[in-house]
Specification:
Length: 486
């Protein structure tokens, strides 16, 4: 048993190290699974075909449409110049005197409306550079501001967010995208308030020291998007392949702000209507038939809601911008292609987790996690945090944790009266707390897009985008333990 535990640790260490060096997760994940199986004395081929591939296929079957429609929607919003129009609108409304707030809110608005984090990076970074230069705020603070708006509270906390992270717990806990809305709003406010406080404080300190904007290092966005190391890391962290960012063709003119925002409103409203009103009242007893997987609406309704919302938003985006987009077919092709590598990469991580969870030695890991003091909410938060941090992927770490322990937590919830909605929100917020370590694909890509480095900008990313989520996680665990889900 102890040798098997050593094997799990060695396999995980190799996976992390080689992925950090730019290795393909498509090869590293099954390779690491083989290492873990060898140490445990388990059959290799059976683990690969019956466990690894089954776990991988299950993840793709559950979530591929979310990756597909999410990437396609993001690409259409980019090529229609809708994201650019929204960024310009925020700039005009808030101005240079509130440059940090403008960047954060622009990122939050587009990502909460369903635009991929990576698409927003490529569009919002030039806007942030212009604003920060005019306000004479140090260039090194740009990545922290963009990250705060795009990859924290809109990714994990705000109720109804169409992010893949918010969708992952739904099949495990039978929840919907708006699970524990009050708890989520509290977490979002804490992340936003703390992040803004830190970034504004950093800007004030810099001003007192006489530090200005600095200079814009030359950045070739086409070169960044095609960098193989960045691409490998990025596709395990978010649902968009950066290599597709340069494909397609931008619109000739920008839409009006109200037109640009209309598809984002559609995502939110359709998601709300589907999850809260339409699906709960629909006749779905047919899902119990083996033909449809012998499932129920509680297991699939959340994914259906988000998929429908994104599809409707895609239709609206095309309808509103049809004449504005010179190469619609190319944009659609690029958006669809951009979803494939991220979906399969994260699924491969999940396959590795499935192999590890099935090994006899994993029971020791499970026993340790469940024995963590503070109750099931604390142990759930710790397990998702650790796995997201180690893999550098909030979605990958969250799925691995729930694949291995989701049924256990649901049983605990039934036995103790904990709401599955509360488990959902704690798990999602937990996955986005410590995932932004230096090897995280979003961090690496954003620094490259902004022309910065870990040495210049990473401290502010940690303070604004990791410390804030950790504080929010602690707060909602305490509030949820006292008052339950609301």
């Amino acid at each position: 048993m102890m040798l098997g535990l050593v094997g799990i640790l060695v396999a995980l260490g190799l996976l992390i190290y080689l992925a950090f060096r730019g290795g393909s997760i498509l090869l590293l994940a099954p390779g690491a699974a083989i290492v873990a199986a060898i140490f445990s004395g388990e059959p290799i081929l059976a683990n690969l075909t019956q466990v690894f591939m089954q776990s991988t296929a299950t993840f793709v079957g559950q979530f591929f449409l979310l990756f597909l429609f999410g990437a396609l929607f993001g690409k259409l919003m980019e090529d229609s110049r809708s994201v650019e129009a929204i960024a310009d609108f925020m700039t005009a409304k808030l101005g240079t005197e509130r440059a940090i707030l403008a960047v954060v809110l622009a990122g939050a608005l587009v990502t909460y409306g369903g635009v991929s984090v990576f698409v927003s990076f490529f569009v919002i970074a030039p806007m942030a550079q212009a604003l920060f230069r005019a306000a004479d705020i140090p260039h090194r603070l740009i990545p922290g501001a963009i990250m705060l708006g795009t990859a924290t509270f809109t990714m994990t906390a705000l109720p109804g967010t169409p992010s893949i992270n918010n969708a992952i717990p739904m099949p495990f806990f039978g929840t919907d995208p708006f699970a524990a809305p009050g708890i989520g709003i509290i977490a979002a406010l804490i992340m936003f308030a703390y992040g803004m406080w830190w970034l504004n404080r950093s800007a004030r300190v810099a001003r007192l020291k006489g530090e200005g904007y600095g200079f814009d290092p030359p950045v070739d966005l086409e070169e960044v998007s095609e960098d193989s190391v960045i691409r490998e890391r990025a596709t395990t962290a978010q649902g968009f392949d950066p290599a597709e960012a340069i494909h397609g063709e931008m619109g000739r003119t920008k839409p009006a702000a109200v037109v640009a925002m209309a598809p984002l409103v559609v995502v939110i409203l359709v998601n709300l209507a589907m999850s809260q009103f339409i699906l709960p009242n629909a006749e779905t007893s047919f899902l119990a038939d083996p033909r449809w997987g012998a499932t129920s609406i509680t297991a699939v309704g959340g994914v259906w809601s988000v998929v429908t919302a994104l599809f409707c938003a895609i239709v609206v985006t095309i309808a509103l911008n049809f004449r504005r987009m010179p190469a619609l077919r190319a944009s659609i092709s690029a958006g669809a292609t951009a979803s494939v590598l991220p979906a399969v990469s994260v699924a491969s991580l999940v396959g590795f987790g499935g192999v590890v969870a099935g090994l006899p030695a994993f029971q020791m890991v499970s026993d340790w996690v469940m024995s963590i003091g503070g109750g099931p909410l604390v142990s759930l938060a710790v397990s998702t945090n650790i796995l997201a941090a180690l893999t550098g992927s909030a979605s990958g770490g969250l799925t691995i944790a729930l694949d291995a322990l989701g049924s256990t937590y649901m049983q605990i919830a039934q036995d103790t009266g904990i709401s599955p909605d509360l488990l959902h929100r704690v798990a999602v917020v937990g996955s986005g707390a410590l995932d932004s370590l230096p090897h995280n694909g979003a961090v690496v890509t954003l620094l490259a897009v902004c022309g910065s480095t870990h040495g210049k900008s990473y401290v502010d990313i940690v303070m604004a985008c990791m410390v804030g989520p950790v504080l929010a996680l602690i707060a909602i665990i305490g509030i949820g333990s006292m008052f339950g889900s609301f």
